[in-house]
Design a protein that fits this description.
The chain is of the alpha+beta class and about 325 residues long. It has two domains: about 5-150, PurM-like, N-terminal domain (60s Ribosomal Protein L30, Chain: A, 2-Layer Sandwich), CATH 3.30.1330.10; about 165-320, Alpha-Beta Complex (Phosphoribosyl-aminoimidazole Synthetase, Chain A, domain 2). The protein is built from ten helices and eleven strands. It has helices at about 5-10, 20-25, 70-90, 110-125, 175-185, 190-200, 230-235, 255-265, 265-270, 290-295, and strands at about 45-50, 55-60, 95-105, 130-140, 145-150, 165-170, 220-225, 240-245, 280-285, 300-310, 315-320.
Length: about 325
């Protein structure tokens, strides 16, 4: 998350603007000038190439990043997975994590702590990561901060897209947002579908299998946390390029597809609201064969959804008739 983790993760819907980047540029970039690994505060990680050190940090606040703490065993899985996804999309295997929490006796009751410990143990086994430290602070506002660490000679940076690059996403987009609507009682489904979509919200299917391969083909990469278009904007924000995305090509699950059709809901809304934690990347056209091979061999769903264009063209998302789609909400942008 680099150094401005709170800014990225403060999930309040705002109009798509450059204010987040202006905030960092005006007040903090100058403080990082002598830290090459800070990457000018315009990436999701700190990368010390000499020491092969890669670090990401995220803060999660009750009411902003998770609704409540009624299911601590699921909340903790969500924040661990979303944190290590910052390393995975850079082609870095997560190794160690540190967790700090602020809360009160109710939040950190013996029962809740037992559930948290059990879930952390499950996540450690699943992703081969190790708890290595942390801190606790008394507060009536519940929050967690996760620092994730990995080691690598190279990473896939932001802002390295090339004109005519293909744009890809891994997995499916939108299930998590529907899960959030279920939890907020804003949509009614049967119990089986409720469980499926809420699990997608709490336990995103992050692409660990991609970590050893993404550096073979990606020019630039990041995870989708704030919404597909919002994160695409951030991935190319300092470059003189534009993009074209085809709505029909954006992958969604069969379950979501059926619900959208049944309830006559708009696909664009469900792919623009974040919490997917899939990998968004660009690659040169000559990498299509290797991408398809890796996708097939390792059973990783990788879908081409558009392309990087000349800055003379307008960035846009189009429908099946190649008509531009006007969006009221392009994702989460976060400001104090």
């Amino acid at each position: 998350m680099m150094m401005f983790f709170l800014i990225k993760k403060m999930k309040k819907k705002k109009k798509l603007t450059n204010k987040e980047f202006e905030f960092i540029k005006n007040y903090f970039q100058k403080l990082s000038k002598k830290s090459q690994g800070a990457l000018n505060l315009n990436d999701d990680v700190f990368f010390d190439k000499k020491n092969r050190l890669v670090v990401s940090i995220d803060t999660y606040i009750e009411g902003s990043h998770f609704i409540d703490f009624k299911k601590p065993e699921l909340v903790i899985k969500k924040i661990i997975r979303s944190s290590i996804s910052d390393l995975i999309c850079k082609g870095v295997q997560p190794k160690y994590y540190f967790i700090s929490g602020s809360g009160n006796k109710k939040s950190f009751s013996k029962l809740n702590l037992s559930k948290i410990s059990k879930s952390l143990n499950q996540e450690q086994k699943k992703y081969n990561i190790f708890l290595s430290g942390g801190d606790t602070v008394f507060s009536n506002k519940l929050s967690f901060t996760i620092t994730s660490i990995g080691f690598s000679k190279e990473i896939v940076f932001r802002n390295k897209a090339k004109i005519n690059d293909d744009i890809y996403v891994s997995g499916n987009i939108g299930d998590s947002y529907l899960g959030l609507l279920v939890l907020k009682n804003k949509i009614k489904l049967n119990s089986r579908l409720n469980k499926y979509f809420t699990n997608q919200y709490y336990m995103p299917n992050i692409q660990l299998k991609l970590v050893d391969h993404i550096k073979k083909f990606a020019n630039t990469s990041m995870d989708i946390s704030d919404g597909l278009l919002a994160d695409l904007f951030k991935m190319i924000n300092n470059q003189k390029v534009s993009y074209k995305i085809y709505l029909k090509d954006i992958p969604i699950s069969n379950k979501l597809k059926k619900i959208l059709a049944l309830k006559k809901l708009s696909k664009i809304k469900y792919i623009s609201n974040g919490d997917d934690y899939q990998v968004l990347f660009t690659a040169s056209k000559n990498k299509r064969r290797i991408i398809k091979k890796i996708s097939t061999n390792y059973r990783i769903k990788l879908t081409k959804i558009g392309s990087i264009q000349s800055p003379n063209k307008k960035s846009l998302i189009v429908d099946h008739k190649n008509h531009e789609i006007s969006l009221k909400n392009k994702g989460y942008f976060h400001h104090f």
